[in-house]
Design brief:
The structure is a single chain. The protein is mainly α. α4 runs parallel beside α6.
Length: 180
């Protein structure tokens, strides 16, 4: 697995060009995504939710947010993307959370701890001034340094790091996680 798939709050890839980082980050192809995930997360689906983004865009958002490929990272990135969507409603969030908890295959399912990361991402996505990042064509930014793109899209890596650390505090203080 690429080291970029295991990004943490202590790593930063801001000096890399988006296209180069993407080539090292890509894990899944569209055909690898389970149908239940594709149905609500891909804009090509007739029942996709607001904030849905294609797989390339989703992976680019991972890189901009400096998040790896754990389920916590996935939850944060999806939460961020949905929260950043101008026409998201509370009912969309409820549908997504229910669907991801009971309809996704085990490897993609979010538990209550993952939902905390989703909520952090959602709140951060709402806070950022640039809206509707799910509509961005990231191909046009391939030659740009990730740091410059973060500035352009209003993503503050220090704030993302603080949210990542808050996730860690919540997880480490949970008696359920300590017993695992």
């Amino acid at each position: 697995m690429s080291p970029l798939c295991a990004l943490t709050a202590d790593s930063d890839i801001g000096g890399m060009k988006l296209g180069d980082a993407y080539q090292k980050f890509v894990k899944d192809q569209q055909a690898d995504i389970p149908l239940s995930v594709w149905l609500i997360e891909n804009p090509s689906s007739p029942i996709s939710l607001p904030g849905s983004v294609d797989l390339r865009g989703h992976d680019c958002i991972h890189l901009l947010l400096n998040r790896g490929m754990s389920l916590f990272d996935e939850a944060f990135v999806i939460g961020y993307t949905m929260g950043n969507c101008a026409n998201i409603g509370n009912h969309h969030i409820s549908i997504y959370k229910l669907f991801s908890k009971i309809c996704f295959p085990d490897a993609y399912q979010f538990n209550s701890f993952h939902m905390r990361a989703f909520d952090f991402g959602f709140m951060y996505g709402q806070k950022v001034k640039f809206q509707n990042i799910h509509k961005v064509n990231f191909d046009q930014y391939s030659d740009q340094p990730i740091h410059d793109l973060r500035v352009h899209f209003g993503i503050n890596l220090m704030e993302v790091h603080c949210l990542w650390k808050a996730e860690q505090i919540l997880l480490n203080s949970s008696p359920l996680m300590a017993a695992a």
